[in-house]
Amino acid sequence: MIHLQGITLVFSGPAGVVCAINDLSLRIRDGETLALVGTSGCGKSSTLKIINGLLRPTRGAVFFDGERLDASNVFAARLRMGYVIQGAALFPHLTVRENIAVMAKILGLPKAQTAERISRLLTLVGLDEKRFADQYPLALSGGEQQRVGVARALMLDPPCLLMDEPFGALDVITRHQLQNDFARLKQKLKKTVVFVTHDLEEAFKLADRVAVMHQGKIMQVDAPEKIRNQPANDFVREFLRL
Q1: What is the pTM of this model?
Q2: How far apart are CA 114 and CA 100, in angstroms?
Q3: How does pLDDT run across 178-220, given as a tens digit for each residue?
Q4: Which of 41, 43, 121, 158 would suit a FRET pair with 217, their CA atoms being 20 to 30 Å apart?
């Protein structure tokens, strides 16, 4: 589904030229869930943004569903990638129903089809339509807002879901509940999922494979149990002890 080939991202910062991603290559299989973990500033979120076309690599190529992404097709590709970020980032002046429908409205989808889809998505993420659909984000808890964010990302039924620290801002109990809900949800949806997390246990719990990153490079990408039992190098070994 996703192929990153020799991706390098260089930018200028206060300290001079910074190499955020260094010759990174990665294949993400159709239907799998892959977690990106690593130290702060290792390039996890930048990698996700490059997949989505929010950042353009200095060198290298991104392929999505067999097609190389460039300026001519990146918008169309984004419509096939749901994006969920920390804190959900809902529009405060729109109701839950209106937040979920944003992309459907932009694309001019039929109102009846949109309403039916919203109803199904609210049920899917565990929110009662009568209770929540006409509420504004400020009336919702953090966990409820995050559920709405997931529903909004799924509005167009994309084959791929990108998630950047989706549960990171929540309290421990809510985070564990949403992790469990997401584990069940991904089994139903059968989508390709790439998510960034600082929580190693979350990655091991939810992902089919985990990519451990450091200084813009992938140190190891494997199934959780293999990373636990066969760390590829000293960095991964030390990272597991954090």
Answers
A1: 0.86
A2: 9
A3: 888 888 888 888 899 999 998 898 899 999 999 999 999 999 9
A4: 158
In whole angstroms, give the CA distance from residue 25 to residue 45. 15
Tokens coding 137: 């984000």
pLDDT digits (tens, 9 = 90+) for 118-172: 999 999 888 999 999 999 999 998 888 988 998 999 999 899 999 998 777 677 7
Q: Pick the closest to residue 153 from 166, 143, 142, 141 (CA basis).
A: 166
- The continuous run of DSSP H or E covering 12 comes out as strand 2-13
Distance CA 195, CA 102 (A): 22
Ranges assigned E (strand) in 29-93: 33-38, 59-64, 67-68, 81-85
The single-letter DSSP state of residue 142 is H
- For residues 10 and 92, give the distance between their C-alpha atoms in angstroms, rounded to a whole number: 35
Two tokens, residue 209 = 């494979």
